[in-house]
Amino acid sequence: MAPFQKIGRVFLTTLLLVQAQSEHATTSLFATVNLAPLPVPIAPAAAIPKPLKGSCRYHPGGGTCPEHAPCCLNGYCSDDPRYCSTGCEPKNSWKESSCFPQAFCSNIHEDFNQPRLASSKTFNGNPYQFDFTTDYNAESVIVQNSKLKISMKLDRIPNSYGRPQGLGSVVSTTRFMQYGKVKARIKTGSNSPGVVSAFIIRNEDPGDEIDFEVVGRDPTEAQTNFYYRTPPDMPTDLIDYGNTGKQPLSTNTALDFHDYEIEWMPEYILWKVDDKVIRHVFRNETKDDVGIDPATGQTRKRYPSSPARIQFGIWDGGQGSEGTATWAGTPTDWSKPDQTYEIQVDYVDIKCYYPGNETQTWPPAGYGPTKIHDGPYFTPGLDNRNGHDAGGSLHNEQESGVHAYVPFYKNPKLMIPAGCLMGLALVVVGTIEVVRRRRLSKVRWS
Ligand SMILES: *[C@@H]1O[C@H](CO)[C@@H](O)[C@H](O)[C@H]1NC(C)=O
Ligand SMILES: *[C@@H]1O[C@H](CO)[C@@H](O)[C@H](O)[C@H]1NC(C)=O
């Protein structure tokens, strides 16, 4: 797996750099920031960014972000409020207060009648205005008949393994929950091998996660899992995949709606389907972490405990790395090019363990970029389909081999055929013109 993943990373990095550079060129008229050229990858090894703390990975020179582009998100720096909100990395930003504080949980029952849903392109970071965001590929998220529908279609370009792959999306809450109960009524989209439907609670930093996943290999089985401190850049061989649970449901989850619930408490996690407990995990029975928890004076446990967002998503696990494909089922059926897979959410009910202690004004005083202008902002990499792990920010078995988003006209693979075609067209036009002139001159002189 590891070599495959390396190849995937090199490819992803190269695309990200290509993308970032072209973004750079197209926005430099407006952007007063980041005019230094981005490093060009010399050898693949040099292009692999080291995901260290204190290094905003793809920013020229690395380190923490500069004052004029203070917020670090997904390895890029910008003063766009989107960069300073959800996912903003305080330690890699200009100042820790460059990032808006995490908006804390509030109880909601969302029946998707008129959800306050922003796309990743328009979200301004304000959790008082929006409850949910689409993290990438906003086109595949719609609200219809009071259902949230997240669909996956065949991507325009093959993945880093050279195989056709679906491109889905992820919808996340704008607020972070630390313990609580989340119940959602869902119809999965996992009616082909490879299609993964996910309902999870996750943060990128420090990388805790609790999940429900249904994979197309067997849509009658609910998979449950939890992870402790597995940030997006963690090498897969260091990730503990040993907490998976599987529960046969004797019903096809892709045919009907069912209630899925995660009850996440300081001392235990319960997973329920249609109000029946299918799994429990006690904190005191999880593995030990190193060190002592100063709050309790006891040994730390490898138990998810940090504030996290609730996410729904669908992604293609059948066409990427071998491990993921085996787990999700393979190959994903893309025999019909207009095939669509769709996860639907009828409602989500969130009951916070710590409700109502969030910041009351927005933007919160003293946080965010020191100067906020009206844009347009320099937003490198933000709308990449960074399908890291379970498509976007969902986390799962191995990386899914999803690549960065590159518009077709920037796709290096299309440059050569496009160039050849243009060359051919010139030759044809030229030849016609020469023939026409010869004829003309013959007429004149004969
Ligand atoms: C863990 O805690 C639960 C109740 O909170 C208890 O029933 C169980 O016996 C405990 N397990 C261990 C190994 O102490
Ligand atoms: C919310 O309150 C709980 C309990 O008092 C506390 O542990 C937590 O840190 C608070 N969160 C925020 C964001 O204030």
From TrEMBL:
Signal peptide segment: 1-20
Keywords: Glycosidase, Hydrolase, Membrane, Signal, Transmembrane, Transmembrane helix
The GH16 domain, residue ranges: 121-356
Residue ranges crossing the lipid bilayer per the database entry: 414-435
Metal-binding as UniProt keyword: no
GO MF annotations in UniProt: hydrolase activity, hydrolyzing O-glycosyl compounds
Domain of life of the native organism: Eukaryota
Transmembrane helix listed as a keyword: yes
Record-linked InterPro entries: Beta-glucanase-like, ConA-like_dom_sf, Glycosyl_Hydrlase_16
Database matches in Pfam families: Glyco_hydro_16
GO biological process: carbohydrate metabolic process
Protein name (Swiss-Prot/TrEMBL): GH16 domain-containing protein
